[in-house]
Amino acid sequence: MATSPMQTDPTLSPLPWPARDEHLTPFLPLVYVAWSDGFLSSTDMERIRTALRDAEELPEAAVTILESWLQPEAPPSPCELAALREGIREVAGHVSRKELKSLVSLGIALARAQAADEGGWATAKGQQVLEGVEELLGVLGAEAARDLTAIAEEVPEPPEPAVPFEPEALRRVLEGKHAALSARVMDLLANPEVRVPDGLPTPIARERVLAATRRIAAEGLGGLAFPRELGGEGDVPGSIIVFETLAFGNLSVLVKFGVQFGLFGGSVYQLGTERHHRALLPRIASLELPGIFAMTERGHGSNVREIETRATYLPECQEFEIHSPTPGARKDWLGNAAQHGRMATVFAQLVVKGEAHGVHTFVVPVRDDLGNALPGISIEDCGEKVGLNGVDNGRIAFDRVRIPRENLLNRFADVSPEGKYESPIASPGRRFFTMLGTLVAGRISIAAASVSAAKTGLTIAVRYSARRRQFGPSGEPEVPILDYLTQQRALLPAVAATYGLHFAIRDLIDRFADVEGDEARARVEVMAAGLKAYASRHAQETLQSCREALGGRGYLAENRLGVLREDTDVFTTFEGANVVLLQLVAKGLLSEYRDLVGDLRLWGMVKFLGELAGEEASRLNPIRSRRTAEEFLRDSDTQLDAFRFRESRLLHTAARRLKHRIDEGMDSFQAMNACQDHLVHLARAHVELTVLESFREAVSRASESDGEEIGGVLDMLSDLFALSRLERDRAWYLEAGYMEGGQTKSIRNLVNSLCGELRPFAGVLVDAFGIPDVVLAAPAAFNDPAV
Amino acid sequence: MATSPMQTDPTLSPLPWPARDEHLTPFLPLVYVAWSDGFLSSTDMERIRTALRDAEELPEAAVTILESWLQPEAPPSPCELAALREGIREVAGHVSRKELKSLVSLGIALARAQAADEGGWATAKGQQVLEGVEELLGVLGAEAARDLTAIAEEVPEPPEPAVPFEPEALRRVLEGKHAALSARVMDLLANPEVRVPDGLPTPIARERVLAATRRIAAEGLGGLAFPRELGGEGDVPGSIIVFETLAFGNLSVLVKFGVQFGLFGGSVYQLGTERHHRALLPRIASLELPGIFAMTERGHGSNVREIETRATYLPECQEFEIHSPTPGARKDWLGNAAQHGRMATVFAQLVVKGEAHGVHTFVVPVRDDLGNALPGISIEDCGEKVGLNGVDNGRIAFDRVRIPRENLLNRFADVSPEGKYESPIASPGRRFFTMLGTLVAGRISIAAASVSAAKTGLTIAVRYSARRRQFGPSGEPEVPILDYLTQQRALLPAVAATYGLHFAIRDLIDRFADVEGDEARARVEVMAAGLKAYASRHAQETLQSCREALGGRGYLAENRLGVLREDTDVFTTFEGANVVLLQLVAKGLLSEYRDLVGDLRLWGMVKFLGELAGEEASRLNPIRSRRTAEEFLRDSDTQLDAFRFRESRLLHTAARRLKHRIDEGMDSFQAMNACQDHLVHLARAHVELTVLESFREAVSRASESDGEEIGGVLDMLSDLFALSRLERDRAWYLEAGYMEGGQTKSIRNLVNSLCGELRPFAGVLVDAFGIPDVVLAAPAAFNDPAV
Fold first, then answer.
1. How high is the pLDDT of residue B15?
2. Does A84 score more than 90 pLDDT?
3. Can you spell out the DSSP letters for B444-512?
4. Which residues, listed in sequence order, are joined to residue A422 by a DSSP beta bridge?
5. Phi, psi of B696 (to 5 degrees)
6. Residues in B 313-352 with any Cβ partner in A closer than 8 A
7. CB within 8 Å: A667 and B143
8. Three-class SS of residue B344?
9. Which of residues 425-444 of B touch A (CB under 8 A)?
10. Is A511 buried (19+), middle (13-18) or exposed (0-12) by CB count in 10 A?
11. Which of B386, B422, B744 sits opposite A735 (nearest CB)?
12. Element holding B128 (H helix, E strand)
């Protein structure tokens, strides 16, 4: 460094600053930047020095000094650089912001501020020389100047577009006719008895959860679906709304509630007859009789038809003997079993006089009033789970347990005292799937609860992302992380899908309430299976995105995203493993709802496959006229056409693939397995079409009755849902020749711009979910002092 | 039902069975199936009855009876159907399996078994009538017959292809030169002191984790990277292998270990000089001095350059004053802070004589020997986290805490007693990123640990899926769920990617050990950032798939998949949030490793953008000659070409998009944000190319030295990795015109068939990870009695 003139008086003025030299001062910002980030190579430095030597306008003395400042082998000391920066900043305080458009204009402004001669040499002759050097530096001059001076560009903040409606107005659109009930349940969730905090030790959590469930039952919300004459209100849709809303609270309470009233109570109600209803429903609704739904076995989860528990009729004493013949026959995963349940509805293979009649359901007492297991009943605790530890899951095995003949839930089949088996349904398959079909409300409920969990996660993540700032343009304040494209993409399409699923599930609840006839019932069952699988996957993915959207903050238990993810994780598995449910959906579509819903076996539907395989797929043309214009792709008819084409094409090609394999002699089970990914894709495509149709109807209704503004925002959201799903599946559309690369790229760009358009509404969109702070209970979302 | 002849003597023989009627018996299987699953409509029944009436070969009396059996308004009773089934089964026990090829052949066989006349009428004349009825039923006759008789088709089980090598042989390929060290650490993991179980209450977990870390330190494994003269072995690669292997055990122990030796010890070693090394490293290596790495602040995680903690030099007493000026300046997320740490390396903005010199690192005592916080130090516990609760994370604020001048870690900058700031690196940016760059070993370590966690999850999930059976072909035993395509797709590509990442990270460790020169160093830093982001995402996705692959069993805490997912979840966030790291990778590529690694600002690299934007993308042609043949797509050169084309094209288009926006006057920060998804895609493409290159080299090495069999399996795995990634990104290849729909469909089919080919090797592939049962500790994977 010895050769550098900067060394002459290092303590006072290491660079000749304030030099008041009209030739040198304009170069100072360039010199600073040349050194400050150290990305100039020796070659670059040499090029700059050559340029200076060639500049005739510059006096030789100045060239000599400048050259000495730019020797790679003699860099300035850090102190010199720091002093230069501080000196520039001091003078820069007096120059106007518009002088910051490049390093050259900054240099000239500095010279002008120092000298009386308005910048002298630089303005008159040297500007070209300076600009040559700036170009050689190869930096963005304006930003380098802002960075150096720490003076922000004078860009007025774009005014936040006013949101022309209150979140409450949008909430009314979401809740519709169920507004009063969901508000009532939401109030109840704020009640300290019901508000069980996360993370309690398991024994305490279990008791708190039981107490909370009792409190909810005391409000009459447990038996809502039961008949009026037995203390209920005959309100099946209402019971699902209650479940949906409880899902904003502690999810162990939700599942405990679902086990008691939906599964245990529901099986007694749906599979039993008056004698069971009168004796049990009032005690179930009040939680006087805590119960268990004992279907799944250790060896058989998805394949319920092959469960091994046996119920043998003994005509001599008019009793059934319930028995678990193998370790795999032990009933598993039963909520309420480890601790609180007194009675169970047990699914078992009925055997009468040596003849097997398939799976039937029996009411079996399992504990006495003191909570001790009854003789022949052995109960294990499942132990700690990944989540939902407030629910006492357990396992039960039966050792030749006797129950009265009347304990058969006999709505669909009965055994006479002398041992005659009777059923209004001759076909064993149809009988079995009719029994299982009565449990469809459970799948709809899980779909609805999944959407609620996604709403909670998104409320936390969107609110945090709008407040948390990190990084920003040079010299400006950091920006909210919700302004980043990747953050918007992680959250806003999920908000859109959450809205769409909300509307679709509400429509399904209506349809379920009014269902009549076999085909309509099959449609409801297929839709319930599809929406359960799709919504539970959506919740899982959304909660993971939300966790990551909060960065480290999302990893704190207090912000609840981990707990929400862990508690809802099993939603993808229980009430039907998703991959099995999606295959049921595909099979329902392939048989046009004529085959048995529930049965995964294919051999009975070859004729349907033949019909479908023979038909042409929907004749929709590839996206019309290769248009990529925004208004065309944002047209909901374009989107619906694309969704319909996909479902139809996947349906017909699946039929053809299956038929082809079967015709070649492949076992139908193997044929289905070979096409499993295709069938799952078909099912997802069907669900997405269902969601988009419901979403569009909701947009129309809102535009008519709730005003243009709300309709407009929902319209954008619906576009974002449709386009983000088309984007996700664009490979398929390209392969099918339905779209071309130009169109799929336009769709991607549109998703990006829709995220930007919806950004100002993000807050109101999650506020409309209407989750009070006390229920949300996540500090990061509302009261973190230092985001 | 009154009209049905089946009703005549319901208790004895409801259907005329054994009828010994040569005209009726052959129809019985058809009649059973017509009723059994109830999917025949009235129209279908009518068609069958018409066919029977038209059959001249059938006596009128038989037609009348058959017609009466097929009246939709008079179905058989369930008992009649059950009796018919049992009757058929009884006789069917005597017919040969090859008679089960249709319902007709079963019917004829039944007649033959009953009568002496070899089937009489049916064989001679009636076969066509029977076949007509079977066709109208529209079922798969062979499967219906197997289902009805419960006799399995006689298909010999395909012999399990013998795996021609032991898992140990494959393990040697994986471990290579580090085999001894990783075996030593694996042994240590089986030690009861080190084996901390999951799910302990937090206070106990913290003490057990500390004790385990002490035990590991006592083995000399903590200070492996430190110089020999200070008790270490100077073995940096070895220290990463230790970390990688510890990741098979309790992950809180892993992170505690990483905080103490990697972050705290590493920062003292890398940023300090001899005075710090001598005084501290031996006590750090022995864990006599538990320490804290205090970089992140509440307000600044990713944007470290803007942290607010200040270190002001006071020349009058030759001390620094460490101070947290705002709530956002509080150091956050510090491992070891809540309880055990005595000293911290604190990152703070250095101010000397009023001049700011950027972020520097200081050694600051925080607790006395009794564990009490020192004056001016306030410590909070972060509280419960989503996972890793055995690590005592905390927050620290400094209230004008004084430390001696010598506590500045002064490898890259120093302050003289009289207050002169000195540094061999003039540029403040380069100085900052050089300091941060020394922490690259941490990112490599997290990448390696992520892969280990994925190995644990896959070992559990593959072993379980090979044992658990559910559903199966008609009349046959249920099949292992690993035989299902969706299960294979969920697990086997993840196994392939895990192998690829393993090899890539091992290569990076080698490269890191030998690195020399700025550009090589930049390449290592970029690769570390990319592999950390990619591997941590891979672990997260894989563990989720594994959890779901176990169904409900995966939701039991004892099977560890939940804990693994929760503990590794934060790997996507700490040591650099993934989305930030991926942008660093993209920026490294865009500047061709010439710009500062670490700096996300773009203004300094406009010249590099200009160069790249001007160049043509790699001139690789679209996939040659539109070939879809298997051997072409399975050729690793084809795959490498495709990966290289993608990286190159994404790089050049990114440069052009950025340059275009900047030329139009957009702020470079906004320009980067507008292209954020593109940059992230570029980074991922780069990582995948890196992984594939390492994978191919490993395949070549193994084929040469470890035999054809091992080489062959690794070759298939590498194909599966490459093709499954191409499949995932096929939309991009289609859009880019590099592939056509026929090719991408072939790729999908190939992924499916590779899954099938690798299925027999699934067990040995996970066994080769070499995790002993006692370390794996998941009952479902090895000792669950009733899967």
1. 47
2. no
3. HHHHHHHHHHHHHHHHHHHHHHHH-B---STTS---BGGGSHHHHHHHHHHHHHHHHHHHHHHHHHHHH
4. A414
5. -65, -40
6. 326-328, 330, 332-333
7. yes
8. strand
9. 425-431
10. middle
11. B744
12. helix B127-137
Average predicted confidence (pLDDT) for chain B: 90
**A34 or B756, which is more confident:** B756
Q: Please enumerate in sequence order all residues whose Cβ is within 8 A of that of B370, keeping only pairs 6 or more positions apart, or say none.
A: none
Q: How far is CA B11 from the centre of its chain?
A: 60
Residue B370 vs residues B340, B342, B379, B481: alpha-carbon distances, Å:
10, 9, 15, 56
- In this prediction, residue A43 has a pLDDT band, given cuts at 50, 70 and 90, of confident
Amino acid at A156: P
Candidate from A385, A603, A677 with C-beta closest to B489: A677
Q: Are B462 and B766 in contact (CB under 8 A)?
A: yes
Please provide the DSSP assignment of B381-411 as one string. E---BSS-TTS--EEEEESSEEEEGGGB--S
Residues for chain B: how many in total?
A: 787
Q: Which of A1, A486, A542 to mutate to test the interface with B (most CBs of B within 10 A)?
A: A486
User: In this complex, how many residue pairs, one in chain A and one in chain B, have their CB atoms less than 8 Å apart?
Assistant: 358
Among chain B residues, the shortest Cα distance to A576 is held by B551
| Contact check, Cβ <8 Å, A786/B38 | no
Report which listed range, B108-112, B123-127, B260-264, B738-742, is most confident: B260-264
Query: By 3-state DSSP, what share of chain A in percent is helix, strand and coil, each rounded to 5?
Result: 60, 10, 30
pTM (2 d.p.):
0.93
Any chain B CB within 8 A of the CB of A663?
no
Q: Decide if B741 contacts A742 (C-beta within 8 A).
A: no
Residues of A whose CB is below 8 A from B669: 471-474
- CA-CA distance, A142 to A100, in Å (whole number)? 6
- Report phi then psi at B576, rounded to 5: 105, 115
User: Cβ of A705 under 8 Å from any chain B Cβ?
Assistant: no
pLDDT of A652 over the 60 cut: yes
pLDDT at A246 over 50: yes
Whole-number Å distance between alpha carbons of A31 and B214: 53
Asked if B83 has any chain A CB less than 8 Å from its own CB, the reply is: yes
Q: Which of A586, A646, A767 is closest to A172 using CA atoms?
A: A767
At residue A310, φ and ψ (nearest 5 deg) are -115, 140
